[in-house]
């Protein structure tokens, strides 16, 4: 699988770019947010990619971070959400926004994406509410390193399909707290929920803490 592409942007269209990698052009479809983040034609860029394989077509989809890529893959696991619908949701909400919408059960925010109806939006929230903490636990992955103009660093790489959540660093509780505050929860209520979850599940990893804390923070009644 092509997991990452780095090279010179030959041209930009409304929803895709053509990236030249040592003389070979790769057409990469992107969300509106990703398109806005990319440089102009003639400059170098790097994108994490996901390859869609069908009987009649091969399509590459590009993302600025691994977190965004994994949200794309997770969204596409929902019935009725194809690659274009996933990009529409990510373009409207962004990785943090979709995590917040799912955590809060806010399917109306998902419905705001172009081409997403209420039934599909509700399926996204309902089907991903237990899976989302795994992606949220990954945190904000750094963008791919820029490519030197010489072209010597132009690359096509195969990378793991689903990177494991970060386990190093300040610890599961701090990472879970960071994820919850990124979702818009107040530091005080998020901290209390994480502390209670950690007390209930002493050996919990980051994803387990996020999942348990979200249940504690969910509206009652």
Q: What share of the residues lie within helices?
A: 40-55%
CATH superfamily annotation of the largest domain: 5' to 3' exonuclease, C-terminal subdomain
Question: How much strand?
Answer: 15-25%
Mean pLDDT: 83
Outline the biggest β-sheet: 5 strands, mixed, barrel
For the record, the count of structural domains works out to: 3
- Give me the strand/helix succession: EEEHEEHHHHHEHHH
- Calculate Rg over CA atoms: 18 Å
Spatial strand sequence of the major β-sheet? 1-2-3-5-4
Number of strands: 6
CATH architecture label of the largest domain: Orthogonal Bundle
Write the layout of secondary structure elements.
Blueprint: E1 4-12, E2 16-21, E3 24-29, H1 32-37, E4 44-53, E5 58-63, H2 66-75, H3 83-104, H4 107-111, H5 118-128, H6 132-136, E6 155-157, H7 172-182, H8 187-200, H9 206-217
Parallel strand pairs: 3-5
Antiparallel strand pairs: 1-2, 1-4, 1-6, 2-3, 4-5
Helix pairs in contact: 2-3, 7-8, 7-9, 8-9
Note the main attributes of this structure.
DNA repair, 3 domains, single chain, DNA polymerase, domain 1, alpha+beta, Helicase, Ruva Protein, domain 3, DNA damage, globular, about 220 residues, OB fold (Dihydrolipoamide Acetyltransferase, E2P)
């Amino acid at each position: 699988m092509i997991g990452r592409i780095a090279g010179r942007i030959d041209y930009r269209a409304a929803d895709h770019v053509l990236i030249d990698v040592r003389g070979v052009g790769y057409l990469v479809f992107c969300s509106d947010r990703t398109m806005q983040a990319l440089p102009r034609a003639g400059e170098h860029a790097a994108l994490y990619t996901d390859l869609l394989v069908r009987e009649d077509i091969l399509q590459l989809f590009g993302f600025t971070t691994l977190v965004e890529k994994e949200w794309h893959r997770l969204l596409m696991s929902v019935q009725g959400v194809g690659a274009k619908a996933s990009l529409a949701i990510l373009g409207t909400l962004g990785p943090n926004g979709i995590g917040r919408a799912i955590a809060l059960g806010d399917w109306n925010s998902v419905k705001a994406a172009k081409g997403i109806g209420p039934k599909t939006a509700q399926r996204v929230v309902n089907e991903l509410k237990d899976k989302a903490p795994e992606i949220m636990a990954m945190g904000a992955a750094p963008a791919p390193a820029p490519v030197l103009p010489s072209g010597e660093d132009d690359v096509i790489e195969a990378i793991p399909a689903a990177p494991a959540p970060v386990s190093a660093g300040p610890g599961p509780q701090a990472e879970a707290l960071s994820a919850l505050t990124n979702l818009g929860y107040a530091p005080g209520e998020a901290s209390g929920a994480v502390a209670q979850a950690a007390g209930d599940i002493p050996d919990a990893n980051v994803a387990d803490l996020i999942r348990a804390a979200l249940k504690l923070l969910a509206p009652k009644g």
